[in-house]
Hints:
6 copies of one chain form a homohexamer. Helix content of chain A is 32%, strand content 29%.
Amino acid sequence: MRPSGRQPSDMRAVTLERNVAMKAEGSCLVAFGNTRVLCTASVETSVPGWLRGKGQGWVTAEYGMLPRATGSRTRREATAGKQSGRTQEIQRLIGRSLRAVVDLELLGEVQITLDCDVLEADGGTRTASITGAYVALVDAIRWMDERKLTKGQALKDSVAAVSCGIYRGTPVLDLDYLEDVEAETDANFVMTGSGKFVEIQGTAEGAPFSRDELQSLMALAEQGIGELSVMQKAALGV
Amino acid sequence: MRPSGRQPSDMRAVTLERNVAMKAEGSCLVAFGNTRVLCTASVETSVPGWLRGKGQGWVTAEYGMLPRATGSRTRREATAGKQSGRTQEIQRLIGRSLRAVVDLELLGEVQITLDCDVLEADGGTRTASITGAYVALVDAIRWMDERKLTKGQALKDSVAAVSCGIYRGTPVLDLDYLEDVEAETDANFVMTGSGKFVEIQGTAEGAPFSRDELQSLMALAEQGIGELSVMQKAALGV
Amino acid sequence: MRPSGRQPSDMRAVTLERNVAMKAEGSCLVAFGNTRVLCTASVETSVPGWLRGKGQGWVTAEYGMLPRATGSRTRREATAGKQSGRTQEIQRLIGRSLRAVVDLELLGEVQITLDCDVLEADGGTRTASITGAYVALVDAIRWMDERKLTKGQALKDSVAAVSCGIYRGTPVLDLDYLEDVEAETDANFVMTGSGKFVEIQGTAEGAPFSRDELQSLMALAEQGIGELSVMQKAALGV
Amino acid sequence: MRPSGRQPSDMRAVTLERNVAMKAEGSCLVAFGNTRVLCTASVETSVPGWLRGKGQGWVTAEYGMLPRATGSRTRREATAGKQSGRTQEIQRLIGRSLRAVVDLELLGEVQITLDCDVLEADGGTRTASITGAYVALVDAIRWMDERKLTKGQALKDSVAAVSCGIYRGTPVLDLDYLEDVEAETDANFVMTGSGKFVEIQGTAEGAPFSRDELQSLMALAEQGIGELSVMQKAALGV
Amino acid sequence: MRPSGRQPSDMRAVTLERNVAMKAEGSCLVAFGNTRVLCTASVETSVPGWLRGKGQGWVTAEYGMLPRATGSRTRREATAGKQSGRTQEIQRLIGRSLRAVVDLELLGEVQITLDCDVLEADGGTRTASITGAYVALVDAIRWMDERKLTKGQALKDSVAAVSCGIYRGTPVLDLDYLEDVEAETDANFVMTGSGKFVEIQGTAEGAPFSRDELQSLMALAEQGIGELSVMQKAALGV
Amino acid sequence: MRPSGRQPSDMRAVTLERNVAMKAEGSCLVAFGNTRVLCTASVETSVPGWLRGKGQGWVTAEYGMLPRATGSRTRREATAGKQSGRTQEIQRLIGRSLRAVVDLELLGEVQITLDCDVLEADGGTRTASITGAYVALVDAIRWMDERKLTKGQALKDSVAAVSCGIYRGTPVLDLDYLEDVEAETDANFVMTGSGKFVEIQGTAEGAPFSRDELQSLMALAEQGIGELSVMQKAALGV
């Protein structure tokens, strides 16, 4: 039934490749099927102005898409002179999601910026970004730990994300682009490795959805994020 | 327990005042307690470029905040030279929410813009905006109906929104500013008058939340939006 | 002869409602007929860079218009990415007009920003803004006086403004929108309560005007501003 | 008494040099003392969108200042990314002033842009700009007349401008920079060759001014503009 | 003598990997040592306005750098709101270089955009971009040829680029980052496969250079570009 | 053969007029035939942030063009809201060229900004700018020397620039606009008075060029810059 031939609860093939950017303190090339995102984590010693002198750190994210990540060329935001509302919405989501699993006080007064640049877009770029950025973040914090820059165990949990949606009447996990454009309802879930919710964003693209439908999507998400957590651990060797 | 003395399931006093902007085709001054938003609906005969010639209409929204709607003066976005990510996120949400209850084909080739300008901000400006903008939208569509500009009954349902959150461990309905800054979890719900979900946005501000906590918030939201729908009907005389 | 049926020397109904914005140190909702402007005064402890350390304050203004204050929707300046030349011209005028009646040294090293946001536009928005902003400013300075933040009596005089014009050959006071678009000459006068000029801006929209015509406009302005000063005093209870 | 040793009613040495820009349809290098402005008139066959197809033309102006026209270097507006409020105010004034003496219908469907670029600034740049731009405009219209591009005598009158002010208690004509920064009142007058007013802008920089003071400034302006009109005629050979 | 241990006339290891972007009509991941650039070619049926209806095509380029391509994180240009002067200079160079080997008339009325996004920067990003973009361009033109979209053999020659410089007194080929920051003279050469020059840019970073020094650099460039041309042919299977 | 009737190795008439801007520390109006550029040098006591406290100075340049310097009016960059890529490329070139002959340490911690504003453009504006800006720079450094602001002889050499090109198959010196638009190859050379190269930029506009052609252009450039150096010395009285 699904264009890819997947079962409703099948995720696409996921890979998490570490140390792909020589100069970053942490990096991960994440693939959810054909969607590929290069995530880098940069440790900087200056924090945003409003945090200065408070002895705590910050984790933030920026999101971008190469112009030809998409089927037809998308205009470069640097040329347009500003980031679109969509881009800002996504990078705010990534930042919030990662901050949810970091103890900013134990991080010390540094800022870690996660750059998520989409090399190829086939649906689910924001959920792949969160999932891969977590891996890059862990490596950056390990890099800091080795240099005694943190004040303790700054990571409180792991975090991953997946999309679900109602496609032709059936709840399905991990929408690809073909499903995404057609889905009646589209929801993104961000959860911790310990199974709690960090963020839920559900949108009725076509028809409003019922509480029962939302429950089905939540169940799929819990399963998918469980699988992603296992893959993150494997990739990180923990 | 709540700073305002409200019970967990108490909404603030809500008022919906119609016809407050002489020149707009529809308008509503909505108050959720001290939060006050002026919503106007403007009918324009030109649609966005990508819709031209398709015989269907569009509903969009813009959101703004007067500089002194807030406790300390906020910089005017027109001076800053751009809308913040938060503003864009909110206006995209308002637009999506209203489009969910409009049949864009029956609307005919017009664009209705909902401007939601916050005169006073005390938490819940986006949910008040959606609730009030719906009332302004109805008046604008009635204005069109009277002039035979629509092609049929363009409104499919009503829509309203409310926030819920976990405040000091307890799920509460309709957060005000004092609660909002302190809440561990903050969720916005947009639902139709017929009780279906249009949008859910839940965010763990402090600690990740469980599925049970989310269920409690959903139950509060369903109750609150039920009350708002009744008030919308009363205001609109239906 | 006038579209509104007014006599040439009749002003529109003027109201000045104080304390309309809960969070501002001073506020006034001013109406000149159907033109309504919400004026707020914000006291901030930081002054512009070039004044820092000079022991004196500053008074400035910003002007905005809600998109649907006008007959057809006006594009939001925050979306356009900049303030129009007209907006900047008006806010510079409001700022200069108010500074003319304030002793900046006695104000102490604070900045007071007057935000004038037009809720409904029917001609004369800049003159209504000045007239209302003065009332908001007085309340803000009183607020400072109560907290012993000023160094003495910072207000030197009152200030108000009105437009005049030559409409169908006749000099008339306080142009509304219908008169404004048709007037041959349009002039804005800003005067103190003691009857001196702060600013005169006269423009030949249609045909150049003679010295005699200017004298007639000046006489009308003196009368109108006299009336406005009385209303300002009444509103302020002095 | 005046820093330059001039009498109160003395203008500075004024020169109007035509044909200084080889490529423009009209041009004039105007000097008011040390203030020097290069004015060019460009005839373009496209009019602003809102005028298209109406069979009438448009006259507009842009104003700029070379970075080192001033005592200390001023930031280039192209680098700053926008024109300041002051620049926009001035160029709007120049445009309005010139349109006052042009019959836009007889001009035909063309746009004439007057660029006024200040090479050296010593007070009165906007009045020098208007005075010089008029000369450039006449040459551009003559250029059009020679090519039978106008539909008749498009020039209705001449126009010139001068500043006056109250300097150390005395009304003086044509303020230079040293006087300008110190003047209590500063007024710019734009008048036609036939002695009527096109624009008056009077501002109390220090203390509000009386009606009598304004009358004195007006008398000085009438005299000064009379002299400028004679010089314009001489320069244009009429 | 060179930090990398290379001989003066040694290039770094160069690889050219085709078909790395699924959705682009042509793509090439080029590496010059640690410098890696992802080049995509996008065929679009709309040409710039000034070319419309002339029956000829256009080739243009855009250049970007991922924030963490560099040793310390570089600010994203989309966030800064504009492309830097350096970026614009580079993308103009890439565009000119590729247009030099394309017959724009035979291309037909299409635009090919070469996006060169630097994944890792270690000196020579602009020369690697040109070399890789050529390969992507060839694939895009082949894609067009297969669909009979071109009007003939649009490629006139091949093109590649390399940098040379005087490093510690010795002319060397293909500078890496460590050499680049220290070089007295830095020159970029763009040449065709047939051995002619398309572009030369030589800059004295430290000390001005003599004609003899320039000759040595030219000789190195000719050798290096000869090698690159062979590699391009091999990669393209011609 | 040349449109101007010049021999291939003839430069246009060059003039260098000093002290044309009263307020600048150095200034020069340079003409290369009909191309005229006003160059001013401004000494400022603040250096860019990254140089602060390093005890050395900086020399930078900005380039602009009056709207009607060109045959048809060019849009003002201040109105467009940004400098074009071409403008930035040129001003970066001017800055680099002048820094090549200045000892920044002996300059002391000041910044000298060279503003090059094109009054009339007829080809070669960047080479005229460099040649004239050098003269303005010398005067600014002399001004500093007189005030004992430099730490020694900050000027190491003189610098000038000229363009050459292949026009209808013949290498020619100092292209004017008519030649520039038609030239197959266009090259700009910047050289010191002592005959060394500071910058070479050669571009194949039409057809790629051979090494021999480049040699001919270089020979012409050496001759032309030799002549310009003599004129610079004469203008500066050295």
